[in-house]
Amino acid sequence: MDPIFTPEQLAEIKAYHLPLYIRSAVSPAVYLGVLLFILGVLVRPFYRGAESCAGWLTQRLEFLRTAPVLRVVIQAMDRLWGEPGWGAAILFALFVDLFLELVYAPSNTYFGYVLEHRYGMSAYTPLRYALDELKGIAVEGVATSALVLGLYGLARRVKRWWLVLGIPSALLLLVSSALDPYRSRVFFDQKPLEQGPVRERITALMASADIPFQDVLVEKTSVASKRLQAYFAGQGPTRTIVLNDVLLQELAPDELLAAVAHEAGHVHEPKWPGRIASSLALVALLFAIDRLLRHSAARGWFGTTRFADIRTLPLLWLLTFVIFFLSTPLSAAFSREREREADRYALRLTQDPDAFRRMLVKAARVNKMDPEPPRWVVLKGHSHPPIGERLAAVPPPAPGPQTPPAARDVP
Ligand SMILES: [Zn+2]
């Protein structure tokens, strides 16, 4: 078998990944440090600033309280919050968010733009990159404001708020994948794959896999990235097969089919254990937040004067970070196992290990994947097994009967 990369290509890939590995090693400590700095030094001045900004705005915008539609909105906010002061709470949360954005702006620009361009992985123009970044910040700002109003507002008024909020959120989490097809449209144009042999072969493959789907869409990500991407979004009647335009450009039809077959493998994996576990984890997290808020109020941490004081928000970020940091290696290990199973499924479905291997090799070349990343990087949170390992699991193109590895696992 040919090696995936020439020595020069491999050297380039190692050079491209080295900064990423360094970031992976130091970023948890950096983020922890930044959060502790916010908690120890910035909470008080940010809160004072938010209060005076909110006061100034209230004076200036007093007329809005009697404006036709806004009057109702403002009254609803007052009721949701239980008292005046939600303006200062939202501003405080936005200050914290904005500070984090500013601190991370240099590293985000380096990793998101400079490094990607240096290794030919990005097609972003500076303008489009900046616009997408701003879009991301705006989406996050809205999400933070909603979280502040929902979580803190409810916690202030309802005793068992973590159940009241947790149960509907957990249910929402259970059905949220139905909304998947609409998510990425915020960033990229999608249009249906044109009629023709490729579409026909995908339709036939899905029929043999017994997977209903609504449409095959082509997502124009080439304006941003030169990577290959394919995924299924939604489920049942909303299931959409999304291929990016780079994939259609780079892969031969049988390789494209191998990629779709891998994605089809994910459809058949048992989803409920994971969904139920994450819903329960969410309720547990909210309960932990409740305990933390009570502790903090009882001890007056960061100048907090009452239960569910907005000044505890960075503490919630800290708690969430610790939980994710500790749980990611475990969830990534499960994810890698699902990826291996999806590979085995694809091989069984297409019966074409040769095309599958070529698909993996092209993906590795185009996406500049490190075939053998350091073990600790994989264990820390890689969602996919290293490409070298995935290739090794594809049955060799030897003459004679070919048995996909998965056949041995099936009783
Ligand atoms: Zn996969």
Please tell me about this protein's structure:
- There is one protein chain.
- It is built from 14 helices and 4 strands.
- Helix content is 68%, strand content 4%.
- It is elongated and about 80 Å long.
- The protein starts with 6 loop residues before the first helix and ends in a 19-residue tail after the last helix.
- It has helices spanning 7-60, 68-81, 86-118, 126-157, 161-175, 180-183, 197-209, 245-250, 253-267, 272-299, 313-350, 353-366, 375-381, 387-392; strands at residues 190-192, 215-219, 230-233, 240-244.
- Strands 1-2-4-3 form a 4-stranded mixed beta sheet.
- By secondary structure, it is mainly alpha-helical.
- Zinc ion binds next to helix 9 and helix 11.
List descriptors.
single chain, 411 residues, mainly alpha, 4-stranded mixed beta sheet, 68% helix, disordered C terminus, binds zinc ion
- What kind of sheet is the major sheet? 4 strands, mixed
- What is the share of helical residues? 55-70%
Q: Number of DSSP strands?
A: 4
Number of helices: 14
Secondary-structure class: mainly alpha
Mass-distribution shape: elongated
Give a list of the ligands. zinc ion
Radius of gyration of CA atoms, rounded to a whole number: 25 Å
Please state roughly what percent of the residues sit in beta strands, choosing from under 5%, 5-15%, 15-25%, 25-35%, 35-45% or over 45%. Answer: under 5%
* Average pLDDT for all residues: 88
Record the SSE blueprint.
Elements: H1 7-60, H2 68-81, H3 86-118, H4 126-157, H5 161-175, H6 180-183, E1 190-192, H7 197-209, E2 215-219, E3 230-233, E4 240-244, H8 245-250, H9 253-267, H10 272-299, H11 313-350, H12 353-366, H13 375-381, H14 387-392
Helix pairs in contact: 1-3, 1-11, 3-4, 4-5, 5-10, 7-9, 9-11, 9-12
The structure holds zinc ion.
